[in-house]
Design a protein that fits this description.
Elements (H helix, E strand, L loop, with lengths): L5 E4 L9 H6 L7 E6 L11 H10 L4 E6 L3 H10 L4 E5 L6 H11 L2 E6 L17 E5 L14 H15 L4 E5 L7 H6 L4 E4 L1 H4 L4 H16 L4
Helix pairs in contact: 3-4
The structure holds D-xylitol-5-phosphate (DX5) and zinc ion.
Length: 225
């Protein structure tokens, strides 16, 4: 089995006054998860392509850019040009998800879609063959440090079933409220890219927490159905 568990610390949880040092502290991560918020799709603002481009030049770790913006169809390619290796956008925001996925890929990055907690897995029915990754939100997007919403487990299993039925194996990312207490069970339910913001950046040793999440997550691979 090719599958492993990948850890994507969310820099939303980092100290922005010392972002360079924070990036160095997670050099052992598989992705750096960058949360782009526009104050419209979600009730918070973060950063845009300018900061992404600076982050890209400051690290060798691939950037996983999570767009929480109202108009991904028009904006997504800007983030590829800024240095993203993976760009995901919300199904609730895209009017032309298929076109936008291929625009991201043609620009040179991997492309994925995101489902909010209230959006069912069936929303992926006509797009699952076209994505490199699906991101299941396990909190309502907008803020770090929120509590994990338990229905995410069922959605991860439904996604596993859909992928099996179609014979595809996109990366499956989970985002929101992930800690060392639930990482094993989300992997067992089908996740293999683990976003962790407050859990990593509130830990005294960030790299050690990345490693701990990876090891605990790997134990979940054995629990798959
Ligand atoms: C929420 C963001 C998350 C967030 C995760 O809108 O998409 O990536 O930073 O933070 P934690 O891990 O603290 O829930
Ligand atoms: Zn995110």
């Amino acid at each position: 089995m090719h599958e492993d568990v990948m850890i994507a610390p969310s820099i939303l949880g980092a100290d922005f006054l010392h972002l360079g040092a924070e990036l160095e502290s997670i050099a052992n991560a598989d992705f750096i998860h960058c949360d782009v918020m526009d104050g419209c799709f979600v009730p918070n603002l973060s950063f845009g392509p300018g900061i992404i481009s600076q982050i890209a030049s400051a690290t060798d770790v691939p950037l996983d850019v999570h767009l929480m913006i109202d108009n991904p169809d028009a904006e997504a390619v800007r983030y590829v040009k800024a240095g993203a290796d993976m760009v995901t956008f919300h199904m609730e925001a895209a009017r032309h998800a298929h076109r936008t996925l291929y625009a991201i890929k043609e620009a040179g990055a991997r492309a994925g879609v995101v489902l909010n907690p209230a959006t069912p897995v069936v929303a992926l029915d006509s797009i699952i063959e076209d994505v490199d990754m699906v991101l299941i939100m396990s909190v309502n997007p907008g803020f770090g440090g929120q509590k994990f919403i338990e229905t995410a487990y069922r959605k991860l299993r439904q996604l596993q079933a859909l992928c099996f039925e179609r014979g595809v194996s996109p990366l499956v990312e989970i985002d929101g409220g992930i800690t060392d207490a639930n990482v094993e069970s989300v992997v067992a339910a089908g996740a293999n890219v683990i976003v962790a913001g407050s859990c990593v950046f509130n830990a005294p040793d960030h790299a050690a927490m990345v490693e701990r999440l990876r090891e605990l997550g790997r134990q979940g691979l054995g629990g798959r159905l």
